[in-house]
Here is the input.
Amino acid sequence: MATTTPASELVALRGGLAVPVAALRVLWGLEERDFAVRLAEDGVLLVAPGSKLTTEDRQAIAHHREALRELVAYCEEPIADRVL
Here is the structure.
């Protein structure tokens, strides 16, 4: 069952991507703790080292997986390719 996020809880990024603020916080928290977050060639979200993820981390990643995938793809995209 798909859930929707109220507009007040979304952040719009340049180029039209809108993601939940909570997903940004998850990504920032992982990066702050030196996790590597990237997409595999097949689009699978990879977070390393997996052995250091807490149960809470895993739940947050699972809950925001699609938004995290979109954010990582957005961050890997050259800035010049984004619609201004």
